[in-house]
Automatic annotation (TrEMBL):
Annotated family: Belongs to the HAD-like hydrolase superfamily. CbbY/CbbZ/Gph/YieH family.
Organism listed in the record: Silvibacterium bohemicum
Gene3D superfamilies from the UniProt entry: HAD superfamily/HAD-like, Putative phosphatase, domain 2
GO cellular component: cytosol
EC assignment: 3.1.3.18
Lineage of the organism: Bacteria, Pseudomonadati, Acidobacteriota, Terriglobia, Terriglobales
Catalytic activity, as annotated: 2-phosphoglycolate + H2O = glycolate + phosphate
Name of the featured protein: phosphoglycolate phosphatase
Top-rank taxon, per record: Bacteria
């Protein structure tokens, strides 16, 4: 069910920035299996996929740290991160897929109502290497003028550095920008940059969306385009 709190001025939105995991793709199983492979290698008990899913959203380092129980020994996190990434690089596409409705919405949103092109990009806290590889393999890359990962800048979301960079590169204003994501991290990023935010209740971290209001909430990726049409009608 589409829920609109603050109608987005769709006619003036010139940049849409998407989160990756839990927004464009369902990567839960591959991330969980990679975490459990790391835990097994470090002689630790595997965790249920449902638990690991709640750790996703703040980058690979935090995912590993949470899975290890937030150890005080930093070398354990470093070892775990290396083991996790080594495994994930080989298995990142075993089960990961693009959510239903994503491609149709991207097609609908890539053009402004006046027929001009609308810029679209990806800003994720996932490391840039696997992010680029996944977008390329799943045929998402052609839709985006830029893809930035969690190690593309000195900071990660919810710091707005990455979103601010995309806004500058696209030559638009924050008011002409929408962030689309499945977590409170994405909401905070948009708010701190002065952009609009669409929250995805179907994603991996959607339980966190309850803590900070979004301008619009959707239950499927197919509703992204509907949200824009609806918000135009609400103006």
């Amino acid at each position: 069910m589409l829920h609109i709190a603050n109608p987005i001025p769709a006619d003036s939105i010139r940049l849409i920035v998407f989160d990756l995991d839990g927004t464009l793709i369902d990567s839960r199983k591959d991330l969980a299996q990679s975490i459990n492979a790391m835990l097994t290698q470090m002689q630790r008990q595997p965790l249920p996929e449902e638990i690991i899913a709640t750790y996703i959203g703040d980058g690979a380092g935090m995912l590993v740290r949470r899975a290890l129980g937030d150890p005080e020994e930093e070398h354990l996190v470093e070892e775990g991160l290396k083991r996790f990434l080594d495994y994930y690089r080989e298995h990142k596409l075993d089960h990961t897929y693009v959510y239903a409705g994503v491609f149709s919405s991207l097609e609908a949103l890539k053009t402004m109502p006046d027929g001009s092109a609308r810029a679209m990009a990806v800003l994720t806290n996932k490391p840039i290497g696997p992010s680029l590889a996944i977008c390329e393999a799943l045929k998402l890359s052609p839709y985006f003028f830029q893809i930035y990962g969690g190690n593309s800048f000195g900071t990660k979301k919810p710091d707005p550095e990455g979103l601010n960079a995309l806004i500058r590169e696209a030559g638009v204003s924050p008011e002409e920008t929408v962030m689309v994501g499945d977590s409170d991290v994405d909401v905070l990023t948009a708010r701190r940059a002065g952009a609009w935010i669409i929250g995805c209740r179907f994603g991996l971290s959607s339980h966190t969306l309850e803590s900070i209001p979004s301008d619009c909430l959707v239950d499927t990726a197919a509703e992204w385009a509907t949200a824009f049409n609806s918000t135009s009608a609400h103006r």
